Amino acid sequence: MGNSGNLRLSRVLLGVTAGIAAYKAAELSRLLIKQGHQVQVVMTPGAKNFVHELTFQSITGSQVRHMLFDPAHEAAMGHIELARWAEFVLIAPASADFIAKLYAGMADTLLHTLCLAVQAPIAIAPAMNRNMWANPAVQHNIMGLQQRGMTIWGPAVGDQACGDVGPGRMLEPLELSQRLKDYCHSSTGGSFIGRKVLVTAGPTYEPLDPVRFIGNRSSGKMGFAIAQALSDEGADTVLIAGPVNLMTPQGCQRINVQTARQMYDAVMEHIQDIDVFIGCAAVADYRPEMMLANKIKKGDAEMQITLVKNPDILQSVAALPKRPFCVGFAAETENLEEYAKAKLRAKNIDMIAANQVGEDQGFESDENALLVFWLEGEKQLSKQTKSTLAKQLVELVSEQLNKD
Ligand code: C5P
Q: pTM value?
């Protein structure tokens, strides 16, 4: 698939044909963009009866193509150029008529012509009434397309717009976007395909009163880079983030929290079926015993705040009866190795990534260096961007996981 080794670069041509499910293709285009693809929508003339091209245009930011003989576009990106541009073609919804003409090799619409001209893989998401889907002519065409190497995604079974219930519904946009993601990863051999991972990132803020909190200087950059690296390797990634000002990594499900206790609750809510837990958040070890309802007023020369201990999220996850592979972080200003190894044992985790917090590395910097320890080994990851470092750490986790 061309350069789709990096999911974010892949160019998807989304073909929309005449069916009521065409309205769902708008959501699909949005999800594909969110997943990091460039999306070019091509509609059949009939599809325009169901959804306006402006809808797609607004979402994808590029003009929808539908005319086979369009002088304006032939001057810019002609239909053959468009076919060369595409790294993946997804037809959703694919009507019975579209499928039949595709099988017959017809080229009377732009979309059919493109399907004949492209070298890229083609996936088809059929959508039609259940009796139409069951019709031997449709089944024959579908099987024929499959034999030619096209991928058929769906249809799903369920309620249909016509009132029938049965197979024929287009797969939901979320399911289709996931299939494309899995396809991209399997064609590039993503090492976390089929794995579920949970990452915590950023600081936690522990409120003292409505305007003040105890927090720390974690930027969340390392945890976000790890979530992105995992997602790029095909992991189903949940990212639980403290208060940070960062874009959600592509393909990740993000849950925002403020306090350590909220982070603990969110982790425990999502921990089931998780294969790998990476605790990268700088969780506040203590919180004020009470959050005052009103702003604390200036008073005597001194004031005392009583702090109570927060739950240790990583340790709690590692103590679960059916626990995931657990990775912790240790940010230290001194005795890096000694403290990190002690934490590995004390928290009973599988791996720990230690980093020296210093002047130009650590919390707020874009670069970092890590010393990674696991029970039988260690590896030094030299100073580099957090995004490269995250990829190397994810590779180490994958090696250890696959040893078991
Ligand atoms: O004990 P310490 O806070 O230094 O350990 C750091 C590691 O433990 C990090 O991976 C951090 O995410 C995790 N941690 C946690 N819950 C806490 C404190 C730390 O998950 N309350």
A: 0.70
In the predicted model, is pLDDT for residue 102 greater than 60? yes
User: How far does residue 355's CA lie from ligand 1's centre (Å)?
Assistant: 13
Q: What pLDDT, on a 0 to 100 scale, did the predictor assign at position 35?
A: 87
> Encoding tokens for residue 64?
């929808």
Q: What letter represents residue 149's amino acid? A: G
Q: Which of 247, 250, 246 is nearest to 230 (CA)?
A: 250
Residue 351 has pLDDT above 80, yes or no: yes
Q: Which of 45-54, 78-87, 258-267 has the lowest mean pLDDT?
A: 78-87
Lining ligand 1 with CB less than 6 A are: 200, 260, 279-281, 283, 285, 310, 312-314, 328-330, 343
Same fold for the domain at 11-187 and the one at 196-401?
Answer: yes
CATH number, domain 196-401: 3.40.50.10300
Nearest-CA residue for ligand 1 atom 1 is 343
Domain assignments of the chain as residue spans, ordered by start: 11-187, 196-401
- Cα(312) to ligand 1 centroid in Å equals 6
Q: Which residues are catalytic?
A: 162
From 200, 244, 314, the mutation candidate for ligand 1 (largest count of ligand atoms within 8 A of CB) is 314
Ligand 1 pocket test: pick from 205, 216, 263, 283 the residue with the most ligand atoms within 8 Å of its Cβ: 283
Does residue 8 have a pLDDT over 60? no
243 upstream amide cis, omega within 30 of 0: no
Fold of the 11-187 domain:
Rossmann fold (3.40.50)
Ligand 1, atom nearest to 330 Cα: 6
Full DSSP string of 135-147: SHHHHHHHHHHHH
Contact 41/65 with Cβ under 8 angstroms? yes
